[in-house]
Predict the structure.
Amino acid sequence: MLLSEQIQIETAISKIHAGDWGVITEQLHQHGFAKIEQVLSSTQCELLKQMYSQPEHYRKTVEMQRYRFGLGEYKYFTYPLPNLIGRIRHELYPYLAPIANAWFRVLRLERSFPSSHTEFLQQCHQHGQTLATPLILKYGQGGFNTLHQDLYGEVYFPLQLVIVLSQPNVDFTGGELVFTQQNPRAQSKAMVMQPQQGDILIFTTQFKPEKGSQGYYRVNMKHGVSPVHQGERYSLGIIFHDALS
């Protein structure tokens, strides 16, 4: 690894550590998503985009239209992950594990999450989940992603990340992140976000707790991407659990 690359990685990690985690935690509790701005430089985003055409980094390519997931393509990384992606995954997890444990506790779900990502991956591997899940997604004009949840086996982590690698309104237009929240016995609520290049958006994988008059209850959430009007949109997804397939 070049020294300049290592310095950029350490700079990105320092921005994660410097985040206002009290505010981030409260936003995740309230909304199911939160943002850390300008974590990756434009240079890092461009290098990750260039990596898309280097097949040695990937274990699987998915054409979204074939499976009716939307219109576009994505590729799952293989182990070992690129250094930047691996570091983000390991360094962010300890901030999110207490939030995940709080959610599971108030919803009276039995699973608890260890404090380190290495220990959590060991739990995945004990259930046969050994394949890397971080991925890069590419959308052209008209590309979109249907509403979904990223679950790859019995063991899953209830929070994940996305980093938009292209600059909105420069590299592409449209292509907003869309979240839907389904409250019990109510219509779905839709929320739209447009992170800037290099921002990290943390969001719920499947659900979040909501406090009602008789205690906490579970609200299910899904995420997707609205149609890209012009240009190309690349994004990096970082999921903390490993996959069966």
